[in-house]
Design brief:
Order of helices and strands: EHEHHEHEHEHEHEHEHHHHEHEHEEE
Shape: globular
Radius of gyration: 23 Å
Helix content: 40-55%
Structural class: alpha/beta
Largest sheet: 6 strands, parallel
Number of strands: 13
Distance between the termini: 62 Å
Number of helices: 14
CATH topology of the largest domain: Rossmann fold
Strand content: 5-15%
CATH superfamily of the largest domain: NAD(P)-binding Rossmann-like Domain
Length: 445
């Protein structure tokens, strides 16, 4: 029976996932480690200031932290004592070298594997929890075998299918848990050990076991299919504007077809987050690698439509003011890529706001959960502007102070933006639903 689990990576995947495992498996000690001591300090700090915001997460952490859930920067010691190690480190898109702009950057995964090999003194089950390209397990196994001294490692793939904003609910009642392992006797024993952990709360019929490669590809394919639906309905929102059709009515009619269903058919300013764009680009790169160029272009079009939608939204606002926003105050309502998360990675708000700002607008930004430091970091990294150039950008601490803008752009579907208590003479461009009217003007008109 597994007694000690170590998770390397205290981010959006590692923190919530290990908290729920600790809650559901009180007989297992679960330790989350990270090379960033500030992140570990935050996980051990006040419950209302955890580094990851998810509804219900603080309640889970409160119950298990210090009992059988621990956060530590002692990577070596916790690797050594654990029988099972989850790898939940970041896998961003490569910025340079072969595959730049599409392929996943595995530098953190490789560093993680080297640490596991270096500090392991007994056999380990190593679990890929990060979203990884197909056949990454081969590379991990190669690194482990090259850097260890006779230790046996079994590599499993256990991709996460969490939706930010509902992660705790998703972990409690997963649609499926996918576990991929080698079809060897030792590989299947390792798979069964991980099955036994999830079986503490997940019904057996929802635990799917496959080979490693199927499991790795399933995550990319799932995100690609979901993102495709968003881009499909967003492409049709442009047709609705030209023809007078209503995107809400169209989405409802399409979604009532039981073969299609209603989920992911809400028009918006575009998808964001850490997964969809990164995973689709990864899939595109994989297709090109195997010379499946038509397939690569098919999936790349999903990204292109998403970029088109963000640009179209910004252009609508710019054109409304005659093509020049110089001196116009625009209030940005929402910075997170979706409601109920403090994650702003690849948020449409970053790109829409940049276009408005560079068209001359004076920008005020408000989001109920994304910190001022995170917003500033996004602007600095994505816009590549100096502190001096930020003079016309202000981050507002609460919605009540956003009364002086000439127009507002709603970019995140927070509940507090549902019935906006703003001056009715103001113009509101609603990015949550391209054809929806609020007050005088919305993006669809």
């Amino acid at each position: 029976m597994t007694k000690n689990i170590c998770c390397i990576g205290a981010g959006y995947v590692g923190g919530p996932t290990m908290a729920v495992i600790a809650l559901k498996c009180p007989h297992i000690n679960v330790t989350v480690v990270d090379a960033n001591p500030e992140k570990i300090k935050a996980w051990n700090g006040p419950l209302d200031k955890l580094p990851v915001y998810e509804p219900g997460l603080s309640d889970v952490v409160k119950e298990v932290r210090g009992r059988n859930l621990f956060f530590s920067d002692d990577i070596a010691g916790n690797i050594e004592k654990s029988e099972m190690i989850f790898m939940a480190v970041n896998t961003p898109t490569k910025m340079e070298g072969e595959g730049a702009g599409m392929a996943a950057d595995l530098c953190y995964v490789e560093a993680c594997a080297k640490d596991i090999a270096k500090y392991s003194k007994s056999d380990k089950i190593v679990i890929e929890k990060s979203t990884l390209p197909v056949r990454t397990a081969e590379k991990i196994k190669e690194i482990l075998e090259e850097n260890s001294n006779g230790i046996h490692f079994e590599i499993l793939s256990n991709p996460e299918f969490l939706a930010e904003g509902t992660a705790i609910e998703d972990l409690f009642k997963s649609d499926r848990v996918l576990i991929g392992g080698d079809e060897t006797e030792s590989g299947q024993k390792a798979v069964q050990k991980l099955v036994n952990i999830y079986a503490n709360w997940i019904p057996n019929e929802k635990i799917l076991t496959t080979n490693v490669w199927s499991s790795e590809l399933a995550k990319l394919a799932s995100n690609a299919m979901l993102a495709q639906r968003i881009s499909s309905i967003n492409s049709l929102s442009a047709v609705c504007e030209k023809t007078g059709a209503n995107i809400d009515e169209l989405s409802k009619a399409i979604g009532m077809d039981h073969r299609i269903g209603s989920k992911f058919l809400k028009s918006s300013v575009g998808f964001g987050g850490s997964c969809f764009q990164k995973d689709i680009l990864n899939l595109v790169y994989l297709c090109k690698y195997y010379e499946l160029y038509e397939v690569a272009e098919y999936w790349h079009q999903v990204i292109k439509i998403n970029d088109y939608q963000k640009n179209r939204f910004a252009e609508k606002i710019i054109n409304h003011f005659g093509g020049d926003l110089t001196g116009i105050r625009i209030g940005i309502l929402g910075w997170a890529f979706k409601a109920n998360t403090n994650d702003s990675r690849e948020s449409p708000a970053i790109y829409v706001t940049e276009k408005l700002y560079k068209s001359g607008a004076i920008i005020e930004i408000y989001d109920p959960m994304v910190t001022k430091a995170s917003i500033n970091n996004d602007i600095q990294e994505k816009w590549d502007i100096s502190e001096f150039q930020k003079l016309n950008i202000k981050i507002i601490p609460n919605l009540k102070e956003m009364k002086n803008s000439d127009a507002y752009a709603v970019l995140t579907d927070w509940k507090e933006f549902t019935n906006l208590d703003l001056d009715n003479s103001k113009i509101i461009f609603d990015g949550r639903n391209i054809n929806m009217n609020i007050n005088k003007v919305s993006i669809g008109k």
